[in-house]
Design goal:
With about 400 residues, the protein is mainly beta. The chain has two domains: about 1-20 and about 280-370, no CATH class; about 25-275, Sandwich (Jelly Rolls). It is about 10% helix and about 30% strand. The protein contains four helices and 17 strands. The chain has helices at about 1-15, 140, 325-335, 360-365; strands at about 20-30, 45, 60, 70, 75-85, 90, 95, 115-120, 125-135, 150-155, 165-170, 180-185, 195-205, 205-210, 215-220, 235-245, 265-280. Strands 1, 3, 4, 5, 6, 8, 13, 14, 15 and 17 form a ten-stranded mixed β-sheet that branches. Strand 14 (about 205-210) and strand 15 (about 215-220) form a beta hairpin. Helix 1 packs antiparallel against helix 3.
């Protein structure tokens, strides 16, 4: 049973690679500069000040200080919210676009594609991180006519967002509290502040679809809008990252002034932009939906936890973060085997870091029931079928 299903699994994965279009990465920031370095000014502008609460009654004052926005030397951008001894808050807000920015060293905007970021969130009362997009015509058309896409928005302790991502589309006639929104809850007790998660949208003409760790949870089309409302998302948009602090007029409330305000850090591993492109035979690529092109050397699902795919990435966590139809089939295949608690030892090698919707724990459960006591025994069932091999540590 296991072998037959895994044969189907690998065949399905190979067939998925025959799709005529792939996601081609066209822009990214990996935040690999030395510790203390500022954000790359060729890619990011700063918004500065409080700007009357940024339309939301927020408390923070945005700065370009190295205390509020810096690279940590470990592959992250850190956006840090700080409360000083007087009770005032500072933080940072960055954008790739120039419209409305306080600095104008970059002007990145895109129309359609896959927009993704891998982020570990802060959490607390009044703590409000976001990864989002605004229309390039923001200054001339104004908000909400320009359109806004909230890819990741977390409301802290408000409605206990410890395991929640909120995805929302705002436009004329459907903005603010009337935005077209949906929430996603992380599975199996995961928390947004315990680990990194990949927040993304796949954006095409007349369609925007939201994902967390490769799981689709929200899709908006012109048919989703209120009657007579205008679709404004077939136009260029730019990316923003910020960490706000709620004020007394915001729905999520303010941090408790009598309680300690622990260091609130939003850690961004990367921001990447992909656009659809014709598939090139034999080339590594990410398929729509985030699946690696299995046709590449016939080794799309061959890997080892300490080594990368041939010619592929070398970072240890690259193999752990992937998603798509193959992931769903793989989980079913391995769930036929051992159901054991604990962290996974199994890794899949892929050419990009996309979080597996079920995480490492499920991938480790690949032994049949009779081998449940032997955690380190190799998972032999279903391997090396149709060129699909999985390396498991001994």
């Amino acid at each position: 049973m296991t072998r037959r299903f895994c044969l189907f699994l690998c065949t399905a994965f190979a067939l998925s690679a025959q799709t005529s279009t792939v996601w081609k990465q066209v822009w990214s920031d990996e935040f690999n500069a030395a510790s203390g370095s500022p954000p790359d000014s060729s890619k990011w502008n700063f918004d500065l000040g409080n700007n009357n609460g940024w339309g939301n009654g927020e408390l923070e004052n945005y700065t370009n200080s190295a205390q509020n926005a810096f690279q940590d030397g470990k592959g992250n951008l850190v956006i840090r919210a700080i409360r000083d001894s007087a009770g005032s808050y500072t933080s940072a807000r960055l954008q790739t676009g120039s419209p409305g920015a306080s600095t104008h060293t970059a002007d990145g905007n895109w129309q359609y594609g896959r927009i993704a970021a891998r982020i570990k969130l802060p959490f607390g009362q009044g703590v409000w991180p976001a990864f989002w997009m605004l229309g390039e015509n923001f200054v001339t058309a104004g908000w909400p006519t320009c359109g806004e896409l909230d890819i990741m928005e977390n409301f802290g302790t408000f409605h206990d967002n410890s395991n929640v991502n909120n995805g929302t589309a705002h436009g004329p006639g459907y903005s603010g509290g009337a935005g077209i929104s949906k929430s996603y809850m992380l599975p199996r007790g995961q928390r947004v502040y315990d680990d990194y998660h990949v927040y993304s949208i796949e954006w095409a003409p007349d369609s925007v679809e939201w994902f967390v760790d490769g799981v689709s949870f929200h899709k908006v089309t012109p048919a989703s809008l209120p009657k007579g409302a205008r679709w404004v998302f077939n136009a260029p948009f730019f990316i923003l990252l910020n960490l706000a602090v709620g004020g007394p007029k915001t729905f999520l409330g303010t941090p408790d002034p009598n309680a300690a305000f622990p260091r609130q850090d939003m850690l961004v591993d990367y921001v990447r932009v992909y656009q659809a492109a014709p598939a090139v035979a034999g080339a590594p690529a990410i398929m729509p939906g985030g699946v690696v092109n299995a046709a590449w050397s016939g080794h799309a699902c061959t890997g080892h936890p300490r080594r990368g795919l041939r010619g592929g990435p070398r970072r240890h966590d690259d193999y752990r973060h992937w998603h798509g139809p193959f992931s769903v089939l793989a989980r079913r295949c391995f769930r036929l085997g051992e159901r054991r608690r604990g962290r996974a030892d199994l890794r899949f090698a892929v050419t990009d870091r996309f979080s597996d919707p079920v995480g490492d724990a499920h991938l480790a459960r690949c032994r049949r029931e009779g081998a449940a006591r032997n955690r380190r025994k190799r998972c032999r069932d279903g391997h090396d079928l149709a060129g699909c091999s999985v390396a498991v540590p001994a």
